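Help needed: design a sequence for this.
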């Protein structure tokens, strides 16, 4: 049975007072076994929504259409009971907001072993050993101090690392790490990167890393998916995308990196903002045409294998 995670035709919307707000539109993604895939894109592009959809962790009012196949089952159709068996043990999420996931009135050490002992995947002693070893790997040389602490006594960056350890406690087959290096200084970022790299090579079947940290994505991920306003504009091998971005948005994203001179992507043309039918990037695109304004470009495969959703590669403009 395939341990790939394959998303097809994913659309996610939220009902609003004046209609619906569609935040993910027709996403296809194959997260292959043995591959670390990075999801990159500006704030609000739908990275976390996509990640959370896999584990049915979106709020109840979210409307999720499409399929997410894993081991022959569509995860979007599983009951909460079936989903509970998958979360944490098969596929674990390291969430974006640690403070929402940690209990404010329980000591960190207890929280880290709770899930494992409830699922009986490890004995109490094994669970404590794994917890302490993970804490050391995530940059806490004296784990007993952290174990005794409460979440409010820790900094944002410390909580972020605690939540990474928590996500890995049950030795999941898959890890979805949402901004694992957020709030960390350069040294700790490198440390977290090294641990995730080791874990992806030694323990997991695959990993999805959601990040704004393109350096992290470049170092850790074999493949990248670039999201913009809920659509995937480019996906393929990391080296191809970073060295030779094809989509005008990816080109802009890379040109805005500090090492590339920090040239910001230009703002949306106010006259074009209301265009909603065509390419999502049309209002900001330096190459936008009438065709881009009117229709969502198809996903086009380039000779090197990557997929790009842009009319410039459709061959007829
Ligand atoms: N519960 C919700 N109700 C309504 N809209 C939502 C909800 N959750 C997310 N959204 C909207 O969905 C869009 C995508 O949000 P998402 O959190 O996935 O972005 P993101 O790419 O992870 O951004 P960031 O990098 O800031 O974390 C945003 O426009 C957001 O406002
Ligand atoms: Ni997010």
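Sure. Designed sequence:
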């Amino acid at each position: 049975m395939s341990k790939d995670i394959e998303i097809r035709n994913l659309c996610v919307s939220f009902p609003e007072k004046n209609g619906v707000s569609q935040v993910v539109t027709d996403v296809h993604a194959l997260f292959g076994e043995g591959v670390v895939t990075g999801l990159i894109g500006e704030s609000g592009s739908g990275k976390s929504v996509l990640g959370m959809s896999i584990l049915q962790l979106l709020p109840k009012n979210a409307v999720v259409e499409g399929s997410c196949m894993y081991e022959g089952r569509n995860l979007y159709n599983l009951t909460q009971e079936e989903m509970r068996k998958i979360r944490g043990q098969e596929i674990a999420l390291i969430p974006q907001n640690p403070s929402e996931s940690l209990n404010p009135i329980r000591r960190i050490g207890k929280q880290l072993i709770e899930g494992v002992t409830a699922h009986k995947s490890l004995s109490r002693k094994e669970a404590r050993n794994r917890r302490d070893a993970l804490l050391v790997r995530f940059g806490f040389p004296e784990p007993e101090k952290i174990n005794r602490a409460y979440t409010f006594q820790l900094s944002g960056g410390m909580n972020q690392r605690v939540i990474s350890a928590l996500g890995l406690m049950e030795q999941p087959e898959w890890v979805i790490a949402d901004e694992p290096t957020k709030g960390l200084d350069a040294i700790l970022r490198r440390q977290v990167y090294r641990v995730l790299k080791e874990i992806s090579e030694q323990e997991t079947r695959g990993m999805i890393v959601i990040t704004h940290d393109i350096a992290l994505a470049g170092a850790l991920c074999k493949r990248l998916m670039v999201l913009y306003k809920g659509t995937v504009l480019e996906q393929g091998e990391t080296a191809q995308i970073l060295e030779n971005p094809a989509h005008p948005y990816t080109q802009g994203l890379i040109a805005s990196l500090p090492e590339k001179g920090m040239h910001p992507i230009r703002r949306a043309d106010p006259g074009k903002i209301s265009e909603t039918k065509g390419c999502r990037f049309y209002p900001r695109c330096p190459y936008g045409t009438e065709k881009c304004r009117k229709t969502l470009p198809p996903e086009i495969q380039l000779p090197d294998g990557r997929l790009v959703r842009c009319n410039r590669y459709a061959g007829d403009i």
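The mean pLDDT is 92.
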